[in-house]
Amino acid sequence: MNVMYSVRFLWVAALVLALSQTGCGKKRYEDNSALIGRAIRKAADEGKWDEARTLAEKAVSQNPDDANAHVMLALALEQAGELKDAVAEAGAAVEADPDNFMAQYTLGRLLFKTSDYANCPKPLKKARALKPKEPCSALLLARTNVMLGVDREAIKNYLDLVAMKDYASNPAPYNELGVLFFKRRNYTMAKRCLEKAFKYAPSSPVVNMNLAVFWDKIALICAKDKVKSGIARAKAIKYYKACLGNMSATNPGNDTDRRRVEKRIAALSR
After folding, report:
1. Which end of the chain, N or C, is surrounded by fewer C-beta atoms within 10 Å?
2. 3-class DSSP string for 203-236
3. Distance (Å) of CA 105 to CA 16, 59, 98
4. Taking all residues of the chain, what is their mean pLDDT, rounded to a whole number?
């Protein structure tokens, strides 16, 4: 379930900050804008997060009410592995400007990253309200609700997400919806969602594994019907083998998982 927690997203966040800083006439704010702009370039273009952090710290010191400066510092602290302090800076950003999307989203994302799921919904819901068509906050809110066991809310979040044009062909929400429906024993919807995920990511080991597990379960449910059970077993074997092939291509050192899949294929083939 790791789609958005990449360094690449930090560049996107930084660029959003840069765009949000333009067009301001106050000298102090221009000074902060220049500092944050330099921090962005140091981080995004040169990978020099220590220098970006120094610039962000200066911007925060210069104007403690600048939410974007706090967000930039939170990102730099996150890169340094100082997650507790990163959460605090994101919280300061929200306090400085509750209507700043990046402040709310960054706080929600960092709370999720630190497994503080109970406190994730508030900033993520605010982020969603500020930018209803922005997909990352919708996906993270769905995942938060999954972790909290609020399945109905999670399903609604995922459905909102797949309704967005930019995410209509993304396998992640369909795959996660499929797992959620499977857990709730809604096998009809689980099948529909997992097959949709497969349509958009046929080589994904995760999607193939989930489809294999799905058909493996159906084979057990239909055990008394030899025809249906046999069809389900054949499909499970097909997806396990696909998972095995893709697993070898993407992660050749994953011997434990490979042996587990091979063992299951052998059991189903008897």
Report:
1. C
2. CCHHHHHHHHHHHHHHHHHCCCCHHHHHHHHHHH
3. 12, 20, 11
4. 88
Residue with tokens 């083939």: 269
CA distance 165 to 169: 8
The answer to whether 4 and 136 are in contact (CB under 8 A) is yes
* Residue after which a domain boundary falls, among 152, 167, 193: 193
What six digits make up the tokens of 66?
């600048």
Q: Tell me, yes or no, whether 19 and 121 share the same domain.
A: yes
* 130-172 tens-digit pLDDT: 999 999 999 999 999 999 999 999 999 999 999 998 888 999 9
Q: Is the domain of 119 the same as that of 226?
A: no
Q: Which residues of the chain fall short of a pLDDT of 70?
A: 1-30, 248-253
Distances (CA, A) of 44 to 7, 8, 10, 75, 83: 9, 9, 8, 11, 20
For residues 244 and 263, the answer to whether their CB atoms sit within 8 Å is: no
Residues 116 and 139 grouped into a single domain = no
